[in-house]
Fold:
Amino acid sequence: MSADRIATIRPVEEHDATGAVAAIFADIKRTKNIDFVPALWRTIATNPVQLELVWTTLKALMHPEAAGRTPRLDPTTREIIALAVSATNGCSYCINSHTAALCKLGVDRETLGEIMAIVGLFNMTNTLANGYQIEPDVKPPLD
Amino acid sequence: MSADRIATIRPVEEHDATGAVAAIFADIKRTKNIDFVPALWRTIATNPVQLELVWTTLKALMHPEAAGRTPRLDPTTREIIALAVSATNGCSYCINSHTAALCKLGVDRETLGEIMAIVGLFNMTNTLANGYQIEPDVKPPLD
Amino acid sequence: MSADRIATIRPVEEHDATGAVAAIFADIKRTKNIDFVPALWRTIATNPVQLELVWTTLKALMHPEAAGRTPRLDPTTREIIALAVSATNGCSYCINSHTAALCKLGVDRETLGEIMAIVGLFNMTNTLANGYQIEPDVKPPLD
Amino acid sequence: MSADRIATIRPVEEHDATGAVAAIFADIKRTKNIDFVPALWRTIATNPVQLELVWTTLKALMHPEAAGRTPRLDPTTREIIALAVSATNGCSYCINSHTAALCKLGVDRETLGEIMAIVGLFNMTNTLANGYQIEPDVKPPLD
Amino acid sequence: MSADRIATIRPVEEHDATGAVAAIFADIKRTKNIDFVPALWRTIATNPVQLELVWTTLKALMHPEAAGRTPRLDPTTREIIALAVSATNGCSYCINSHTAALCKLGVDRETLGEIMAIVGLFNMTNTLANGYQIEPDVKPPLD
Amino acid sequence: MSADRIATIRPVEEHDATGAVAAIFADIKRTKNIDFVPALWRTIATNPVQLELVWTTLKALMHPEAAGRTPRLDPTTREIIALAVSATNGCSYCINSHTAALCKLGVDRETLGEIMAIVGLFNMTNTLANGYQIEPDVKPPLD
Structure:
């Protein structure tokens, strides 16, 4: 009467990776300063083009210095955005991964609670604004 | 061959508000330091209990000092979360409102672009992690 | 600097409908007791199979007596479900249509406010339960 | 090759709760007439402000008599809304909890099936109305 | 500290099905050329009307020849749509089922990777287009 | 009593683009064989890094030959995925754009209707599978 989340495809094992895939796996471990390649990357590695596109994008945005870029947001704010999106979408893998990342960055559970409370609040007010089809008050002035 | 977003219910006009509703309208203007009551609040004011519950929650989380609370996150980070959630949910009213708030807080369009790029990235990786049913690597250690 | 929602496909005009499509259009007007065919039905009529499948399903569930079926839920509860789903999904067309239907059934704006408040609340708690990956307390006993 | 849902944060144990948290835990058990505090509440209790805000809102809307308020909707309709939202969002914890609540209120599996069929139907028609960008027929007349 | 997905309702066992339900169960096995009735169908069979409506719709669209209809899309394209929707919604049951169906149709893991990459890409660009409230360039010309 | 979708940020005009942005604008027009740069690209160009990352990804996946890659899916299937995702997410800009693209590729309105009907169907069955927390039948065999 119970069932687990079942991965639909076998991830590429690190020792099976060759060529461009092996090089990206090495870059992931070096850039993130971890000693294993997370399952997300080993899974999308089954299509090497996909691996390269997603890693290039994530490296540029989440590890900007390693990509030779000066970011506008600090690492904690970037991870908070990641968690806010993942919680809104209910993505188990990403929620686990970004909560762990925030913890590693020193965010304690009360701050995590404040993040979640705000994420929850705006999921509520989004529903109200949509549910009543409320019309905008403002024309944002950004040029 | 075209049609507008149509509010489903007529908002309460400020000059029609009395009692608890008028008091909350005044508190909204004072707390947010604005000279009108936004349509969201005037709409949910059609049910005064709802107005009070949503305002109490939003005031405590987004205007913590006014609610007598010391926050853990700064105002810009809080508005970034609001925009990340609203963009993920595609809520027009909230996207307009929180983009304007970030602009008022001094966020420029390149920073807004970095926020959006990160929000977009994690909507992509959330889909991949869900779409392959990828299993978690980590047990987050938060106690 | 402004833009409207733009229908992607021209709906079938009532006077252009023939055969099975015309028969379903007539059934829609008779069953719903209205004197025009709403745009949803005229649009999906561009694929007559789709029109038949969706109308058969909606008629059976939302107009059960007309479909020769005894429902378990009353009409107002059924429309409340429709609005709760549509507000959660942010579907403009459906929010307008089901709010109007509830109004026709005698629901006033304070009750609408209670519905919306509950819809908003559970969009908030869903986010919290997902965002913390909270594990279930209960095994529902329904056999 | 299998993995469980993993809570990201350790809930507060009932015997560890003190002060305002202990008082809310007691109010939850009394109001809901249950002999344990569900994991949702024990988890958000890691941030006591969040616990208070969410419980105040949920108590007012879902246990209105306990909050000194006269509701417009009956308890079964309120739980049906909760399930409709939770099913639409795919929130496991909430689906389990609100299905159990409906069962306790005497809803049998055929009625549950009618609820689900209607929730499913409007997730389908929402997609069609959005997918064709169908323009509204009506201006809802609610004042 | 771990928990499984828990079905909220006991599915109808094949040997317990009678009448219209048994006939649909037989039609499902014959049409899909499988020797068991999947859990989705056995679960919604707890409300026979729901079973009939959903099966009629799915048979017409996904097994059109069995329903006496000439489809416009081939079986692989139809399953790709099913997977794209299910991945976007994060529906575990459906992701598993439609990935298996694509595999049975001969889709290899690199093609699956291309499908997923495209699904992920448009979840990203959808968020960007919504997040900036970008206004349409085109009036689609479909008549 | 009506309001338009309001872009939150002024797109970069083609004649204002310089350097890397101008080069990408030219590549977009050449690759897509169009004589203007769509608003999506001109908007995200306000952050040139974002423009480059999203265009590189979209070019590789949707214009693979221009990116020097042999695709596994044909252009129509790729656009069908784009529309299925966009309809599920309710993204107006993307729905308009991908419906127009499919039309240009020769898809007629009856085929569009079949696509939409299948997209709608699986949004319904996803909700049912999630709403009952149905447990998977299969372990997909993809290696």
Remarks:
- The helical segments of chain C are 19-32, 39-44, 48-62, 75-89, 92-104, 109-131.
- Residues 2 and 12 of chain C are 28 Å apart (CA to CA).
- The two ends of chain C are 57 Å apart (CA to CA).
- Chain C touches chain F at residues 1-6, 8-9, 44, 46-47, 49-50, 53-54, 89-91 (CB under 8 Å).
